[in-house]
Write a structure and sequence with these properties.
Oligomer: single chain
Distance between the termini: 49 Å
Helix content: 40-55%
Strand order of the largest sheet: 1-2
Radius of gyration: 17 Å
Number of helices: 6
Strand content: 5-15%
Shape: globular
Number of strands: 4
């Protein structure tokens, strides 16, 4: 069972401590939480669970892992979830996360994929710090 109240409280507390540019969420069972977070001032962006939205971020994460450029704090749940992900590749070479059985949860790994999607696609992150401070004009 997921305690959405706990998640909401934690994310709101995190937003007071860290700069959250936006928060990607799966609209399937996530809309109410996203609405509450938006009311608290956190911009929430729908990231539907489709190959179109998850394929590239999944490939980027895999490349970072292979290159040794992505690390986490050793969280055993995240490590377990990442180990449960099976890459399903379609005929167009799109990659989609799957789990082999219902017992092998992948939710934390999918959250990482959604976060990567937002990190790469966020318009707020696409502006150079030099541009925003008037040092460089493109």
């Amino acid at each position: 069972m997921t305690d959405y109240d706990y998640i909401e409280r934690t994310l709101i507390a995190d937003s007071e401590r860290y700069r959250i540019v936006d928060l990607g969420f799966d609209p399937w069972h996530g809309t109410q939480l996203a609405t509450h977070l938006a009311d608290a001032g956190i911009e929430c962006v729908e990231v539907p669970q489709t190959a179109r939205n998850l394929s590239d971020p999944m490939k980027w994460i895999q490349a970072l892992i292979v290159d040794g450029r992505i690390h986490h704090d050793g969280n055993p749940v995240l490590a377990w979830a990442i180990g449960n992900v099976t890459a399903q590749v379609d005929r167009n070479d799109n990659v989609f996360p799957r789990k082999e059985t219902t017992e092998k949860k992948i939710d934390p790994a999918v959250a990482l994929i959604i976060a990567m999607s937002r990190a790469v696609n966020s318009e707020a992150l696409s502006t150079s710090i030099y541009e925003s401070r008037g040092v460089m004009v493109l």
